[in-house]
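Re: the 87-residue chain
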Amino acid sequence: MQENILQIIPGTDWVAVFDENGEESAQSLICFAVVESAGKREVRPMIANGKQISFADTLPGFVRVEELDAFEDEEEDEEEEEEDDEE
């Protein structure tokens, strides 16, 4: 199935979130792409994957796309909970 990128939109301040052995990690988006495939259009996230740019949603462990600030806030909340549990 052929995919055609119709438009590229900057992905500034957005991350792709991946599950790596139960831990979440984030990778900055390069852009969002408006993609047409089989008559359907959708917006898909893209990241730099080595020397290539790939659709994040096709990579192993992909969970979701999230604003960077929201992801960082979640990380801080988890760290605070872990500290509280240790006390």
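Residues 3-86 form one domain.
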